[in-house]
Amino acid sequence: MQSEEQIKEMVKQKYSEIALQDKGTNASSCCGAGGCSNEVYNIMSEDYVDLAGYTQSADLGLGCGLPTQFAKIKKGDTVIDLGSGAGNDCFVARAETGETGKVIGIDFTPAMIEKARSNAENLSYNNVEFRLGDIEKMPVGANVADVIVSNCVLNLVPNKAAVFQEMYRVLKPAAHFSISDIVLTGSLPEKILSAAEMYAGCVASAIDKELYLSYIRSAGFTNIVIQKDKPIVVPDDILTNYLNENEIALYKANDTVIRSITVYAEKPASACLPGSGCC
C-alpha cells in the first residue's frame, strides 16, 4: 500500500508527462494515462469549443465534464479552479467573470503551472493567475472565493475529505462550487485498482458516489445538487492491458460503475469557521 505522499508524487510525475502530450493522446485515454484507445476518441472529456473563453492551446483533453457551464459565475466574481492544468477552465471562467473579476488556478505540477502562465501571458490576461500548491492546503486565504470549479481532479487526491474542508474554508459565506469528477457506483476489478497508471488515469482513484457526497455534507455544505451524471465506458483495448478476456466479460456484464458527475453545493450564508475572520 502506497502512502499518500507516494501517491501524490506518482500523480505529479505522471501529469508532468501529460503536460507535454497532445490533446488527442489525452482524450483517447483515461485522463492521459492508462494507454490509448483506438475504439473511442473522447473517453471522458467533453467539448469546450463552443464556450466563450475556450483556448485551444490550454485544452489538454483531461476533463470529465464542463463545470464552468453549470457554475453560475457572475461578473466581478472571484473564481478558483482546483487542478487548473494548462488553464482552459480558468480562461472559460474569465469569460464569465469579466475583467472586473479574478480567476485563480491552483495546480501542484510545475510543468502545468508553467504552461498555464505562458498561455495567460500570450492572451494578455492580467486578472488570471496560477499558483503552485496542493489543493489539500490551498495557497489562498479564507473567505475569498465566490465560486470554485474543478474538472476531474479531486478523484486524484488521496484525502478527498480534506479538499472539501479546504473548499469550505476559502469560499465566502453564501458562495458555492460546481465540480466535475469521476465516482463509482460499484466495484472495480482488483487488477485495475492496483494499477498505478489507472490511478493517475482517474479510474482506480475514484471512490463510491455516496461516500463522495458524504464528504461534501460533512464539510458543512448545503443545497447539494447533481447537475449532470453520465456513464464512463472504458474501451476493450484499454481493459486488455489489465484484464483477460473472461475478466473483461465479467466486468462488462455489470452496469457501468464508473460515472462522471458534476455536483453543486453551497456554503451557508451563516457559516463561520473559528479563526477564519468572518465572525
What would you call the shape? globular
CATH-scheme architecture: 3-Layer(aba) Sandwich
The CATH topology corresponds to Rossmann fold
Give the end-to-end Cα distance, rounded to a whole number of Å. 42 Å
Work out the strand percent. Answer: 15-25%
The sequence of SSEs as H and E is: HHEEHEHEHEEHEHHEHEHHE
Q: Count up the domains.
A: 1
Number of strands: 10
Largest sheet: 8 strands, mixed
Poorly predicted residue ranges: 24-37
SS summary, helix count: 11
Task: Describe this protein's structure.
There is one protein chain. With 279 residues, the chain is an alpha/beta fold. It has one domain (4-266): Rossmann fold (3-Layer(aba) Sandwich). Helices cover 33% and strands 23% of the residues. Strands 3, 4, 5, 6, 7, 8, 9 and 10 form an 8-stranded mixed β-sheet that branches. A two-stranded antiparallel sheet has the order 1-2. Helix 6 packs parallel to helix 9. The N and C termini lie far apart (42 Å). Residues 24-37 have low confidence and may be disordered.
Short structural description:
By secondary structure, the chain is α/β, with parallel strands linked by helices. Helices cover 33% and strands 23% of the residues. Helix 6 runs parallel beside helix 9.
Features:
279 residues, alpha/beta, Rossmann fold, two-stranded antiparallel sheet, 11 helices, globular
Secondary structure layout plus pairing:
Layout lengths: L3 H15 L4 H5 L1 E2 L2 E4 L30 H4 L7 E5 L5 H10 L4 E6 L2 H14 L4 E5 L12 E7 L8 H11 E14 L5 H4 L2 H5 L6 E2 H10 L3 E10 L4 H4 L5 H9 L4 E9 L13
Helix pairs in contact: 6-9
